[in-house]
Amino acid sequence: MQLDFAARELTIKLVYYGPALSGKTTNLQSLHEAADPTITGRLMTLETRDDRTLFFDLLPFTFRDKGGLSVRLKVFTVPGQVIHASTRRLVLQGADGIAFIADSQVAETENNATAFMDLKENLKTYGITLKQIPLIIQFNKRDLPAVRSDGEIASLAAQGREPVYLAVATRGNGVVESFVGLLYLTWSALDAEHDLNRKFGFDSTAFLESVARRLGHDRPLPELLGACVGGALEVLRPEAE
Amino acid sequence: MAASTGTVLDELTMGRAVELESLVDRSALREMAESARDLFGISLRIFSESGALLADASQRPRLYALLDEQKAGQAALSAVVSAVKGLEPEPETELDYVCVTGARYLVRAISYDGRRLGRLILGPFRDPVAAPSAGVAALAPGLDPARLAEAWAELPAVAEDPARQIVRHLSLSLDLILFSGHKALLTSNMHLMSVQESYRELSDKNTKLQHAFDRLKELDRLKSNFLGTVSHELRTPLTSIIGYSEMLREGIAGELSPEQKEFVQTIHEKGEQLLGLIKGLLDLSKLESGTMSLRKSELDVVPLIQDVAQTLAPAARKKAVEISVESEPGLPSVWGDAERLRQVFLNLCENALKFTPAEGSVRLAIRAAVLERRGDDEGRGLVLFSSKRPAIEVRVIDSGIGVPDAEKERVFDAFYQVDGSATREHEGTGLGLSIVRRLIDAHDGTVRVEDNVPRGAIFVVTIPCRRTTIA
């Protein structure tokens, strides 16, 4: 997070992490398509010739609050391929919240787990544990055959701490819900740490609802947040030590 | 850590590090502005957010030149310039300004990622149907109204909507240029940062490996020291055991019954066997730590080898293996330690005997050879390294079980046994060949294994003669 008090400008970094070809870039494309053009810029994709992400994708959002605070969201993806380890680490640095995009196919279970351990290791190099960072998990590609069943995911998710979303990013299903869930967790954690709502007279519920509205989802926040299976939208608070 | 490189990425994507000047090439920007002016016929200026004029594609209209000749006109025009420069449109919008003459300007913000990076000023131009403002005549009282009207008519005539479209089009083109520029800037920085990060990672790993390697070397040294100490401490009491058992056997402490004699004999033999092993360990530790000193002298190898063969003849007879020595006449002497070389050949012959079945043979062939030192693997730089030295080659040829290809190098490792299983057929400590290799190394010579056809192995030892070279 970067806070410019003079300009009343807050920049938040969200990172979409996950194994290669799990649909991180597709999530961003889908968000970009859904978004009202006044709140988003161009989706910047640094890709190789075969459409694989080389360094990262970057989707910027800018929201202006009535109170004059301008909230800028920078949504990044990391390159999923194993060889881009150092790039993943670079992009991950300074992330305020992470969406882990998993591939629902049964055959990809191992790759999901490996990518998650990679995330854990990379966070460790910055002195951060998974417990300390806002995190949601999205099971993408629900439309494919041979995917892990809803029941299996729900029962496992119920035992986990983080909210889990089901999505078909190519059709935009579940993409905004995942994004709003991530933003909710991230904002809550930043607010708990920096007291943003009070300092800027900011109404976070209204903010999140307006974000969702401009992404084409005109629903009250509790309903949007209820779209996850299992886990908990538990707000992270700085540990009292 | 990747802290510094990560900060660069943050500045380029999160913060305010992006400036118009850093994203576009000034001369190319000027060319684009000039081309737009030529196309639309209207002056165009591009300023950065800090107020620097980055591109100026303007022509001073004759109307302004005429007004400039008058004092009042001059003052009014400079007021126009500062007023236009002072306009600050919001991102994605443009402001309209009408100057004292009635001519118009459009000022549009150049913005990127929601932030204003500069301004684009289009004008002056006139509305096709509008007349000059009434105040113009007052600014140039002495001027012929007809000339003024003529100069007014020369101003580019554009209606408001097309003019707004022109600035929007130009700002969209600029936006694309900025986006591409930013993307290129990010890509090149990411390339650099990824390389730095990978380099850092590799350096970390190298450091860890180096530490591990240093630690292993230290452990190896400790092991050799330990071996040396323990062997030495074992040898002292063992010498007493052997000595006293020998005295018992000789009957110095009184006559022994045949059974007692046999038992004492066994104690003595096993003691000698154990002493051999301990000596081997001691030699190895000395060789490894580099503390073994060789007493080298001119030495004739043939009698030495014959002596070895004689020593082993009884054992060979017992096993029904034939042992023989053949040598070329007139062989030169080598430069070596007689005792150690004897140890080498004794070891090799014992080995050969051990692995050769009954009715087999062990042959020791001695001949003159040339020891060649090579340059690198490709034979480059030979002139720098090569010294052909006369040498003696001893081949220990057996008809035993042979050495598989994969084991040909490893047999010289300390404690290595081709058959490492607990139930292996042939006993031994696995020290012999490693001592042979080290002793031959200490003689500047070489030792290798070859296959004997149809069966068996050949150990080829080459020892250089005096330190002379063959021209």
Describe, in plain words, how this protein is organized in 3D.
The complex is a heterodimer of chains A (241) and B (471). Chain A contains eight helices and eight strands. Chain A is of the alpha/beta class and 241 residues long. In chain A, strands 1, 2, 3, 4, 5, 6, 7 and 8 form an eight-stranded mixed beta sheet that branches. By secondary structure, chain B is an alpha+beta fold. Chain B folds into three domains: 17-158, Beta-Lactamase (2-Layer Sandwich), CATH 3.30.450; 199-286, Signal transduction histidine kinase, dimerisation/phosphotransfer (DHp) domain (Helix Hairpins); 295-464, Heat Shock Protein 90. Chain B has helices spanning 3-13, 20-23, 26-40, 62-68, 71-85, 136-139, 145-154, 160-249, 258-289, 301-319, 338-355, 382-385, 432-442, and strands spanning 44-48, 53-57, 94-98, 104-112, 115-125, 297-299, 322-327, 334-336, 361-371, 389-398, 446-451, 457-464. The longest helix of chain B has 90 residues, at 160-249. Chain B is rod-shaped. Mean pLDDT of chain B is 85; it is low at 375-379. Classes of the chains: A alpha/beta (241), B alpha+beta (471). At the A-B interface, strand 4, strand 5 and helix 2 of A face helix 1 and helix 8 of B.
